[in-house]
Write a structure and sequence with these properties.
By secondary structure, the protein is α/β, with parallel strands linked by helices. It has two domains: 2-157, 3-Layer(aba) Sandwich (Rossmann fold), CATH 3.40.50.720; 163-282, N-(1-d-carboxylethyl)-l-norvaline Dehydrogenase, domain 2. 49% of the residues lie in helices and 14% in strands.
Length: 291
């Protein structure tokens, strides 16, 4: 398949590389030019999308998706009947519906396909896609999904993939916050963090979030697998979507304040696990970041 891939960040670059490894003809574009082995780098989204079967996006936020599609030198001018736009960014469900409508006016189809699995999952083609779109359209993307991931879950019609992604990241943020507060309390009361992590692993408190983050947290290593600025962006999207739907999220509203503090302290480009430093500082403990 001819694939135009726009967005070569922590997740997008290995995704594009895996598509090329699988034998697809891949053209790549990134705001800051980057090369991908096996792919052809081009200068604009419009050039990437020209004659492509699929345009795949993995960019930072809602505004970036709009710019890539409909901005100056955007891909919209190259869209045609039968082409598919697939978006693996995490963006507003409401905006997704609007973008999909504009894409379909061009005769193309639209799939929202946000991902989970973090940097390692992207590198090892072990991502999980949560997808919104028509089943017939998803079937046409099967070989691409298989090249980048291990599972595809259809969540419903357009925008439902984004809605599911926000719900998933909400839980990740809250689970990690509970871990950060728990480990801080334990340390303050004299329990070694390593002992607490070991205990968590053999109880019902065990979670994938803790399993993944604990080795880094124990070293205060906040090298970005999921940058704090992106989780903070997602939290804002969650609260916005909740407001539109008339849903109260009191726990998340509290967590959002921790992220605001972390952003003020210059932790945006560290992993979101760096919020532990904020909790430790509030407890009168000196947080020490290794990143």
């Amino acid at each position: 398949m001819k694939v135009a891939f726009c967005g070569l960040g922590i997740m997008g670059r290995p995704m594009a590389a895996n598509l090329a490894k699988a034998g697809h003809e891949v053209r790549v574009w990134n705001r800051t030019p980057k090369d991908v082995e096996g792919a052809t780098r081009v200068e604009t989204p419009a050039e990437a999308a020209k004659d492509a079967d699929v345009l795949w996006l993995c960019v930072s936020d809602t505004a970036a998706v709009e710019q890539v599609l409909f901005g100056q030198n955007g891909a919209a001018g190259a869209l045609r009947k039968g082409m598919i736009v697939a978006d693996s960014s995490t963006i507003s469900p409401k905006a997704t519906e609007q973008f999909a409508a504009r894409v379909r006016e061009k005769g193309a189809d639209y799939v929202d396909a946000p991902i989970t699995g973090s940097k390692i999952g992207a590198e090892n083609a072990q991502l999980i896609f949560m997808v919104g779109g028509e089943e017939t359209t998803l079937a046409k993307l099967d070989s691409l999904f298989k090249a980048m991931g291990k599972e595809v879950r259809r969540m419903g019609s357009t925008s439902k993939g984004q809605a599911a992604k926000l719900a998933m990241n909400l839980q990740i943020a809250l689970i990690y916050e509970g871990f950060a507060e728990g480990i801080t309390l334990a340390k303050k009361l004299g329990v070694a963090p390593e002992a607490l992590v070991g205990l968590i692993g053999v109880t019902m408190v065990k979670s994938g979030v803790v399993d993944y983050k604990a080795p880094f947290v124990l070293k205060h290593d906040y090298s970005p697998n999921f940058p704090l600025r992106l989780m903070h962006k997602d939290i804002k999207l969650m609260l916005e979507a909740a407001h539109e739907a008339g849903v109260k999220l009191p726990g998340l509203e509290t967590v959002a304040k921790i992220y605001e503090e972390a952003a003020k302290e210059g932790k945006n480009d560290q992993d979101y696990a760096a919020t532990l430093d904020i909790i430790e500082r509030m407890a009168g403990m000196a947080g020490k970041s290794a990143a």
